[in-house]
Design brief:
Layout: H1 2-22, H2 43-54, H3 67-75, H4 78-87, H5 104-118
Length: 125
């Protein structure tokens, strides 16, 4: 009985390690049936590489959708956001957000996705 439990735990740990070190997606465009065709082009990159830090605010990362945290960064301009994404920011933002296969356009798209989420939408006045 103990061998079965240990065997299952080892399999779960191995699968978890594979998912952690390779990301949760295959990098292909598209997705599950029924996925919105109008999805933002940066959303998949965010979900694969940026979510783990920006969703929880790890190491000072501005939380996804937090307008107050993003406002001073947005005010500095998109060029600086891109430069910081490429080179990284001490203490916690690694260069390229660990997306070494990302193109500059991929980075521009994911930055735009996060900025849009943190920009309040003005309703009818």
């Amino acid at each position: 009985m103990i061998r079965i439990i240990v065997s299952r735990l080892v399999r779960v740990a191995a699968l978890t390690a594979v998912l952690v070190f390779t990301g949760c997606g295959d990098g292909a465009t598209g997705g599950a049936a029924g996925e919105s065709a109008a999805a933002h082009p940066g959303e998949q990159t965010y979900n694969r590489f940026c979510f783990s830090c920006h969703q929880g605010g790890i190491a000072g990362a501005p939380r996804f959708g937090d307008a107050e945290a993003w406002a001073p960064r947005i005010a500095k301009g998109s060029e600086l956001l891109l430069a910081n994404t490429k080179t990284g920011i001490t203490p916690g933002m690694p260069a390229m957000g660990l997306c070494n296969s990302c193109t500059e356009q991929d980075l521009i798209d994911v930055i735009d996705f996060m900025v849009q989420a943190a920009t309040p939408v003005s309703g009818p006045q």
